[in-house]
Amino acid sequence: MSAVELDTDTAVLSKHHHRWTEEAAVYGYPAIRLAGAFAVVWFSSNAPSKPRLFSGILSALVSAFLVYTFLEPLFLPNDTSMAFLNILTLMGGCVGMSLGVLLPSFFSGICFGTSVALLVASFLNLPQALLFPFLGGALALAFSFLAAHSRTKVFATMATCLEGGAFAAALVVKPMFPFLKDVAKGHPYNPSETDSIYLAQLTPEKRIFLGCLWIAAALLVAASAAYRDGHYESLNLWAAFRTGYTPIPSKDDQNGSSTKPSFTPNPPPESLDVFNMFNPADLPPRLAEYANMVYSACEDLGNFFGFQDSSVRNQAEHLLILLSNNRRYMSSHILPPSVQPPSPIHALHAKVFSNYVKWCRAMGVAPHFSKLNTSMNAPPAVASRVVDLVLFFCIWGEGANLRHMSECVWFLYHKMMEEHIQSEGYTQTRSLYAGHFLDYVVTPIFEVVEQNMKSKADHDERKNYDDFNEFFWSRECLQYHYSSFKPDPNDMEEFGSSYGPLPGETILPVAEGLAASPKTFLEKRSWLRGIMALSRILEWHIVTFYLLAAAAFARELVWGWVYSLQVASGVFWLFNALHLTWALLEVWAIYPGIQLSGTAVCGSVFVLVARFLTLVYQTLYLMWAFSPQKGVYLGIEAEPVFWWWQYIWLSLIVMIPYVVETFVQIVPSLSTRIYTSQNDYVQSFLNILYPLSRLYVGKEVHESFRHTIVYVTFWVTLMAWKLFFSYVFEVNSMVLPSLQLADDYVNYPDQSFAKMFLLLSMRWLPQFIVYLIDMSIWYAAWQAFAGTSVGFSDHLGDVRSIDDIRNNFGRAPEHFCKKMLSSDAGSRRGSSASFLGSGNNISEGTSLLGSDPHKLQSYVNRLLDVRIQKWVMFSAAWNEIIDHFREEDIISNTESDNLKFSQFDGFSQAIYLPVFQTAGAIDDVLAELQRPADEYTNPRTGAYTDESFFKPITEHVTMQTAVAEVWELGSFLFAKILGPVHAKDVQAILAMVNKWTENEEITANMKLEKIKIVFTPFVELVNILEKGMKKRTPLARGKDPSVRNKETKPKPSTPGVRRVVSAGSLATLDTDNKAREVPQVAAIEETVVIVDAVRDQVRDKLRNLTHGLKAMLKNTAVESDGRDVLDRLTFLGSMENGFFWDDYYASSQLDDIAKNDTFKGVLKKIYGLVCMHPDDAEPKSKEARRRLTFFVNSLFMDMPDAPSIHDMFSWNVLTPFYSEDVLYSKADLERRTDALGE
């Protein structure tokens, strides 16, 4: 194909394309506009069925039209100004829609009046700029007044016909919209070229045609509405003035939920002479003290209000038990006499009715309490409080699920007590059947609640507990009567004046008011809900992003600080625009399911109007401040800086709420004082501008100033770092590309502003999204830094392994008792004699055994020691945890024994540390005792003391405790093995060693560096006993030793000394008045040979142990104490009827201790102390390790102290719900019901 042919084809295609474009412009676009006009007509015809929705749409159209029409001449003729004009038009439309939704009747009239004024002005030949404003304002006020006092549906329909017709006509005829704009400006027939563009080309006939076209389109909309509605009554103007104002029905009204609940009274229950726990005829003394007053009040109130007899008896017992429990406040150990209540009744009354008093304060009414009762045999102040308590608990007892609605319970009490007070004199004559209260008070309210709870409708069409509670937080509830019972007028004499509506009430029961009450909260399922929830975060990001961008452009373009400040001041416009956006979203959130109070609506209207008007003037001032030259605006000729200062002063007013909110955030207690203030001006201000302040919940919840400072510091540092990072890597890098993209638009006048704006938006949008997202990244990093610093300061996570548990085990009981037990848990009297006082703190270096671990004390005295109490309580919890581990089979029996604390009755210590804690500690002790002498001796004299020698051991709590346990348990083991024959010698040796320890003379009398020669056979002895005692059975023996002694013939005693007595003890034998009588050697007639390998091994190890002990003694030739110990050790090994030589006696001793449970426990404990490696004593299960480390770690966390025992809920009776099972067996109570436990 040649180039000529190609050019020809291209020309043909271009010609066809041009022809198609012309045909589309001639036929296509008009067809689309015509279709759009018919769509508008058809949509507008639906106005009668949705008046509130169309009120918002009509208000939006009128607001947008007026904003654009009257603000357009004030804006500079450039693209940027026009863009802001469009933004204001959009915001004006949204504000108008919100106002129309909030006040549908009022704004329907305004829209209708404005449309009528515009229609009339289009036919009048009056070239006045103020014609439409005056005429439109007058008609808008007039019709709004009429609409407020008539049916909203009529005015909404008429306004929709006019505005829908105008919109449809504007779609069909292009000049329609400019025509209406010029009519609104006031020059319809002789416009100048600068004021009007379209109307200068229109003849009067064409202008009249446009007005008639509007009327025709409006009639078409009206006909469509009448057709869709099915009748023409909605267009009957006369009907609008024949009826009064009718509120817009809510969804609950449309669904019929406001109908009166139907119920059938329950038959009166039979009276049963039963009781719960205490027989009323035989009450304990503590309960009988107030029984007469309580039972008397129960009888009167039960008859007066018709409570069930069994319920009244149940609550009477309930109240008596509570009064008995509140007697504890009369003790000086709990409350000082200056603050003690006069009686338990006063204490319980103040506690029970504290929330009722707050409810009355929020409702603005005085609380109702019984008058001083002089009929009872009690002080009037006490008797009246008993009546209050009885009435409340009777209401609460029969309230069933209404107990969950505490506000409803207070409402019932308030109304019933008011009736009881006003019916004084009729209380003895009025008697309702038992069950009347349940039938006519509880049942109607419960049926309303049940109907909504069981409804299958969506959340926006049914009410929940929060909505019902909010009804009882409004003063409207006080207008209803509490009961649904309506007595026959002929029977009113029977009830006297005690029945019927109270002052300020209607005859309607509260159940009907509750059914007709609107929803107070509705959460729409929309993405806008997420934006609304994150509004403060989004606002902060948008504002800071703008400031960073302004700083980056100022740095790149080298702006002066004055111009840079002016550009940065645009942030005030952003603040106001965003605040207005959030206000619009709040209106969107409440439409259409929530009906606001009058003050809330006024507050929303005020905020929307004030914010929008401020935004309009901010936009104008800021635009004129950046104008290139001096100009005349609003009749004022001034420099641009003048308008910038006007913008600043106006913006300061906008920023006042932000400043107040910032100050309240820094001082949170100030918000509580503002919310709870009783000042009428403050409350009026809050009710109008902050409707949520009317909610009761959360008004008195705030953090301390110290916590707030820490919180603010965290966020300020985080945001400072984020802003710095984002400026450098996200914002500053976008300045040059943005300048290059905007260069063509700035330098060439034919460039499109929309194209340039689209390109810049596409360039900056990813950066802004990253700017939004990276906040979470920096928050995670900052949270990690803050958490790490807090963890280091609070030692969180220090316990990560079993070794860490060992290192921190000494601190665990103190933290356990402080955080898990109340301050009076360990006191003997439950008062100030608390073992958790500040003066009894145990340090990590303090031994479990006190200041002197070697001094034996009785078990009782040790248990009373404060530090031992803490360890005992901690050991109980620790052992319980280990037992649960064993029940779950994550540890074995041996591991359980190694992990648990040990207790032995009759021993000096209350508890003994777990084996896993002390295993291997003795090896460390031996290493310290065998260290070089120059580490503990005096360099000049070479002498040393017990303190210097044992210093490494006494400074280590675990080694010190292990030594004490080995000494006590080993002594017990040694004494039990040797038996009663050697008891005196063993006790004397142990007493002497204890004496040396107390007097710090142990190093002067023993060679402790040779401790290894004693400890080695001791370890071997424990190993032999551990293995041999498990399966030991009694061996076959000969005759009993006592029988043998009777059959033997002893030889006459001869003077002299036995060969086993040492030479060094001769002087002792001659001078000691208590010298031991040397047993005579008896000739044994029969020889019994007993084969016992364990016995022989034990003998061998004991001989080595005694030889080692003798080798450790010092100065036995000089010191009498050492010589006596040496003699007794020698005597132990030489007694023929003792353990070392008498086979029968030795085997019998081993048989006896093999059956002794205490000996087995001590042996197991000491085996772990001296024979086990630390790794062998640890649990092998990873789950057990994880749980133990978590538990010990949690003890060192920052948690509130445990409350006092006196703050515990007191024991009372069981009050069931309606038809609820209340009898359970022990197996039912202990049976697990969770899925994992089944």
UniProtKB/TrEMBL annotation:
Keywords: Glycosyltransferase, Membrane, Transferase, Transmembrane, Transmembrane helix. It is an enzyme of class 2 (transferase). Its EC number is 2.4.1.34. Residues 383-486 form the 1,3-beta-glucan synthase component FKS1-like domain. Residues 1033-1057 are annotated as: Disordered. It holds the Pfam family Glucan_synthase. One of its GO terms (cellular component) is plasma membrane. One of its GO terms (molecular function) is 1,3-beta-D-glucan synthase activity. It catalyses: [(1->3)-beta-D-glucosyl](n) + UDP-alpha-D-glucose = [(1->3)-beta-D-glucosyl](n+1) + UDP + H(+). It is found in: Membrane. The chain crosses the membrane at residues 24-44, 53-71, 83-101, 106-124, 130-147, 154-173, 208-227, 533-554, 560-585, 597-624, 644-664, 709-729. Belongs to the glycosyltransferase 48 family. This is 1,3-beta-glucan synthase. It comes from Fistulifera solaris (Oleaginous diatom).
